[in-house]
Amino acid sequence: MVIEAAIEVHRELGPGLLESIYEAALAYELNERGLRVERQLPLPIRYKELEFDEGFRADIVVENLVVLELKSVEKINNAHRKQIQTYLKLSDRKLGYLLNFGEALMKDGIVRAVNHLG
């Protein structure tokens, strides 16, 4: 459902807008599909005995399970891929998607990321 919604948003808006526009539109589409969506969700990070209340903000978290990191860049690079992997690890979630709305075709801008599957 996440991929279908992202493709719908990209089809309607096209590439090249600000990430915040895609975030709002994607959250709307996911809500319309009956999914619970949280935007700019602050997620704590633990480091040994330290806890940072707001370690990072996930662009979108779907059903408290799937982390979505949105980009609007010409091409996804390794730093972007590492970012979603780190977000999954630190939030202890198993599935995430890096969605680049800057691509000419949305299917070329979708990267699936997993954490501790198996």
Question: How would you characterize this protein structure?
Answer:
With 118 residues, the chain is of the alpha+beta class. The chain has one domain. It contains three helices and five strands. Helix 3 links the parallel strand 3 (66-71) and strand 4. Helix 1 packs across helix 2 (19-32).
Whole-number average pLDDT? 93
The rough form would be described as globular
β content, as a range? 25-35%
**Gap from first CA to last CA:** 23 Å
The tally of beta strands, per DSSP, is 5
Content-based structural category: alpha+beta
What radius of gyration results from the CA coordinates?
Answer: 14 Å
The main pleated sheet reads as: 5 strands, mixed
Concise overview:
By secondary structure, this protein is α+β, with helices and mostly antiparallel strands. Helices cover 34% and strands 35% of the residues.
Notable traits:
118 residues, alpha+beta, 5-stranded mixed sheet, 3 helices, 5 strands
Topology record:
Elements: H1 2-13, H2 19-32, E1 37-47, E2 50-62, E3 66-71, H3 78-91, E4 95-100, E5 110-114
Parallel strand pairs: 3-4
Antiparallel strand pairs: 1-2, 2-3, 4-5
